[in-house]
Design brief:
Elements (H helix, E strand, L loop, with lengths): L6 H11 L8 E4 L5 E4 L10 H9 L3 E3 L13 E8 L2 E9 L2 H42 L6 H10 L8 E7 L5 H17 L9 E5 L2 E7 L6 H16 L4 E8 L5 H15 L2 E4 L3 H10 L3 H7 L1 H11 L4 H12 L4 H8 L3 H14 L7 H23 L1
Parallel strand pairs: 9-10
Antiparallel strand pairs: 1-2, 1-5, 3-4, 4-5, 6-8, 6-9, 7-8
Helix pairs in contact: 1-3, 7-8, 11-12, 11-14, 12-13
Length: about 375
């Protein structure tokens, strides 16, 4: 990192440090001897002769009042080189009698060096994250340029291998800022727990979800994987996430399909785990692929009929319907799950079926339309959130 390229960071150092050393003036100079950050704003942009001498000799310069005629643009104080390895980054100076500020100046030099090293590391991490996110975007967008993604993987020291399955982890929240911060914390947690492999997996936060493209050899067990992700997030961070996994991609152009399956299934199923290769989740995914135009033509009128019949807030009605479907249309089990009397649930379901004209239909037709209504309701709620 070149000091001249991080002027904002240099000023942050000055602002943070000056109060800790009694408000003394601190200057940071670039490799041309120009002050690029200072607690005396009027000095920024001026040439510092003392810094120029430090840069020339790579050694500290102590300036006393009697020396000032020889140091244009300087004041009394101590000026130290900022060196990283064998590279001279710039100069840091502190105003005051050199005999009085010598120790403080030495500590300041160490502090500035460490701060800049941390800033450089942070910038590298940001760049790496951006490159990884770019690679993620390339992999989920067919057609995939195999040579290009493999080269990008090598730059990131990734060993990209097939087959791959996409995982979508989401936090159900209308607060997008809270959601983004939560996903950043989750990404760090999962990496620290070894549930994301930085040398094998491609991952990043995309469109409100943490997406993980995970290498899935023959030994991979999908249920164990998503359950571990779910339980770790819920236990460690006390979020109740949605974790969904798409089907296996055995070629590069199938990764986008796996991604779409994971994303769509995660939004449909809500909190908990979902696996598109499980028949119940697979059927839900297949129904969800119905085009919006068809949903609006055939399902929206039924949805409106329910709204008119039950009133404005239908949250409780769809919670009832979701439990009824999840319990495979068992009234007894759904009633127990909802903690209501069986007759209460029967009344609600019968009224709903009557409102949409399905009371006398075959059980398959009923179950199909009820699940489609659930999907439509989730789409409506999703539009409000996103």
């Amino acid at each position: 990192m070149k000091l001249a390229q991080i002027e904002s960071v240099a000023q942050e150092i000055v602002n943070a440090t000056a109060p800790l050393i009694g408000g003394r003036t601190i200057n940071i100079m670039d490799t041309a001897g120009v002050i690029i950050a200072s607690s005396d704003q009027q000095r920024i942009g001026t040439f510092h002769q003392g810094a120029a001498e430090v840069l020339k000799n790579r050694a500290p310069v102590r300036i006393f009042p009697s020396d000032l005629p020889h140091y244009s643009g300087s004041r009394e104080g101590v000026n130290l080189p900022i060196i990283k390895g064998d590279k001279l980054l710039g100069v840091v100076g502190i105003l005051g009698n050199p005999d009085e500020v010598e120790d403080t100046a030495n500590l300041l030099g160490v502090y500035v060096g460490l701060y800049l090293e941390q800033a450089a590391t942070a910038q590298r991490n940001i760049l790496r994250r951006e490159m990884r996110l770019s690679l993620l975007g390339q992999l989920i967008s067919a057609p995939v340029d195999q040579e290009r993604v493999l080269e990008a993987g090598r730059v990131l020291s990734l060993n990209l291998c097939l087959p791959i399955r996409a995982i979508a982890l989401s936090i159900i929240s209308p607060d997008r800022m809270h959601c983004a911060k939560s996903l950043d914390r989750i990404e760090e947690l999962l990496a620290s727990r070894g549930l994301i492999d930085p040398l094998q997996d491609v991952y990043g936060v995309l469109d409100g979800s943490l997406i993980i493209l995970k290498y899935t050899p023959a030994s991979f067990h999908a249920e164990n994987c998503i359950q571990n992700l779910y339980s770790t997030v819920k236990t460690e961070l006390e979020y109740d996430p949605s974790v969904a996994i798409g089907g296996e991609a055995s070629c590069w152009n199938e990764i986008g399909d796996s991604y779409d399956e994971a994303r769509r299934l995660g939004r449909l199923c809500g909190a908990g785990c979902a696996n598109v290769e499980e028949n119940i989740d697979k059927s839900l995914y297949l129904m969800s692929t119905m085009q919006n135009r068809a949903m609006e033509r055939f399902i929206a009128p039924l949805y409106q009929a329910i709204r008119d019949g039950f009133g404005g807030d239908m949250t409780w009605m769809f919670a009832t319907l979701e439990a009824y479907c999840a319990c495979e249309f068992s009234v007894t089990k759904a009633a127990q799950q909802l903690h209501v009397h069986k007759n209460t649930l029967l009344y609600r379901i019968k009224k709903l079926l009557t409102l949409i004209g399905l009371e006398e239909e075959h059980s398959f037709t009923k179950s199909y339309f009820l699940k489609m209504l659930l999907i439509y309701d989730k789409r409506q709620n999703e539009q409000q959130i996103y």
